[in-house]
Design a protein that fits this description.
It contains eight helices and seven strands. The protein is an alpha/beta fold. The protein has two domains: 9-187 and 227-253, NAD(P)-binding Rossmann-like Domain (Rossmann fold); 191-225, no CATH class. It has a seven-stranded parallel sheet with strand order 3-2-1-4-5-6-7, with helices on both faces. It binds NADP nicotinamide-adenine-dinucleotide phosphate. Residues 14-20, 38-40, 43, 65-67, 91-94, 141, 143, 186, 188-189, 191-194 line the site of NADP nicotinamide-adenine-dinucleotide phosphate.
Length: 261
């Protein structure tokens, strides 16, 4: 099985920590040159140093706030001016938790921009290089709420569905160029995002954290949270030549938690 990413350049968004960083770590292990994109320069500098360089890669980072689509466009235009991008990981911070009936119009607009519009800008920027190379992998980190909406994540559930629909439409149009578009749907994965969601539940329920976490784990057939590298491994496989005929799918990586077939 060919999983080598030697000679491939990857842009990994939301990669200063958590799932994005874990994806970059796995891509680097397979030989990709990684360009990290997020807001925090200090954590990005530290993140670049964690990436494997045994294929003599020179990893780097760029800064953009996904709340500002102009910044994202400038960052990706600067990146593609320097090298073609073969792998794009669309990922950023998730919308705040809360019931949908309390969500404001601005929250929907901001989340749509931060997720869907940025994915679109990033994808349009990397497409010419992918077409010329005859190789493209666009991987979107979304959520299992694409399959079954999750409680107390009203804005997130709504926006994730839009991103999944956008991705499937892109897959239909881009497959002919040997560019695949797929989605990873993480379940409860042990990152700072999960810590925040847990704290939110602790505050709302008044229950101790260990009790809240035990309840969350009981909702998972494997009875544990996922590790970020377990998401990273799936992304690295999808990015590889071995995944050449996988296109337009959404893969839950959730220990079996999603209750649909
Ligand atoms: N963890 C889970 O259990 C879980 C489950 C399902 C879905 N997801 C989704 O998977 C994605 C990644 O989750 P995670 O757990 O890895 O989150 P995380 O630990 O909070 O990390 C989020 C990453 O995105 C970056 N980011 C956040 N806001 C940004 C902004 N405005 N502009 C640019 N970069 C930004 C952060 O870096 P900077 O702060 O440096 O910008 C960080 O690198 C999220 O969309 C999340 O909702 C997570």
């Amino acid at each position: 099985m060919n999983v080598s990413l030697n000679g491939k350049n990857a842009v990994i968004c939301g990669s200063s920590q958590g799932i994005g960083l874990a994806i970059a770590e796995e891509l680097a292990l397979l030989g990709a040159t990684c360009i990290l994109l997020a807001r925090n320069e200090t954590t990005l500098q530290a993140a670049v140093k964690k990436l494997d360089t045994s294929s003599a890669q020179h990893h780097s980072f760029a800064i953009a706030d996904f709340a500002n689509t102009g910044e994202v466009k400038k960052a990706i235009d600067d990146i593609v001016a320097k090298q073609p991008i073969h792998i794009l990981i669309n990922n950023t911070g998730g919308p705040a938790a809360g019931p949908i009936v309390e969500a404001t119009a601005d929250q929907f607009v901001n989340a749509f921009q931060q997720h869907l519009i940025n994915n679109h800008i990033l994808t349009q920027a990397v497409l010419p290089g992918m077409k010329q190379a005859g190789y493209g992998r666009i991987i979107n980190v979304i959520s299992t709420s694409v399959k079954i909406p999750l409680p107390n994540l009203g804005v997130s559930n709504t926006i994730r569905g839009a991103v999944a629909s956008w991705a499937k439409t892109m897959a239909n149009e881009l497959g002919q160029f040997n560019i695949t578009v797929n989605n990873i749907l993480p379940g409860l994965t042990h990152t700072q995002r999960l810590e925040k969601l847990t704290e939110n539940t602790v505050a709302k329920s008044g229950q101790p954290k260990d009790v809240v976490e035990k309840g969350m784990k009981e909702s998972i057939p494997m009875r544990r949270f996922g590790a970020p590298e377990e998401i990273g491994a799936v992304a690295a496989f999808l990015a590889s030549p071995a995944a050449s005929y996988i296109n337009g799918v959404s893969i839950p990586v959730d220990g079996g938690r999603t209750g649909s077939i």
